[in-house]
Amino acid sequence: xKVQVLVPLSLVVSVALLGLMKFRQKDQDVxxxxxRFVNIxxxxxxxxxxxxxxxxxxxEESLAKITAEQKTLLVGASRRQVExxxxxxxxxxxxxxxxxxxxxxxxxxxxFNNFKAEADKxxxxxxxxxxxxxxxxxxQSAICDFVKKDSQLGSKLCAGKVETPKEIPxxxxxxxxxxxxxxxxxxxxxxxxxxxxxxxxxxxxxxxxxxxxxxxxxxxxxxxxxxxxxxxxxxxxxxxxxxxxxxxxxxVPEKR
Length: 256
Known about the structure:
Radius of gyration: 67 Å
Largest sheet: none
Number of helices: 10
Keywords: Coiled coil, Signal
Number of strands: 0
Coiled coil: 49-118
Region (Disordered): 158-256
Distance between the termini: 224 Å
Organism: Scophthalmus maximus
Strand content: under 5%
Signal peptide: 1-17
């Protein structure tokens, strides 16, 4: 009886165990597949994590480099800002200097124009004075009226200005012969008088006068005006008064 019960019971238990094993086998296969997928996913995640870590390290290094460069650029920017401020200050100084230089240039230009106008006036007055002096030199000297025109000294003093001698009366012929005796003394006195050529040589030329005049103001102060030059020049009447008269010259040989 026991055998009859045990055999079917063992069969039932075996079948149940077999069914349980089949069911567990399916669960195990599913679990193994899941574990395999999880392993693959874990590997991929690990690779991705390593890649992220590598990228992170590279990014951190780049960030450190960029931070260092930023600090350097900030220092350079502050230095450049200081240079810009200094350049602006210098530019303002240069502008002020340029304005002052322009003002000085304008004032110097105005002074130059004034000096030029004064110099032109002085030049015109000097030219007028030179022409006047040339005319005075070209005119016949007052002493030529008292000098014999045919003598050597008279030809020098009154060269080119000898007038045609008038007819001498016969009564004065003897007086002229007596005056000829005193001619050596007159020649000595005339030799002491400067010739027109020497007077011209002593007179300063306009170019020398211009070279000697350093400034228009000094030239104005030193240069005599035409009126003063005319006042200083001896008048013909004074020259005639100073020159010895023929009657006095004739009286000397008569006393001798």
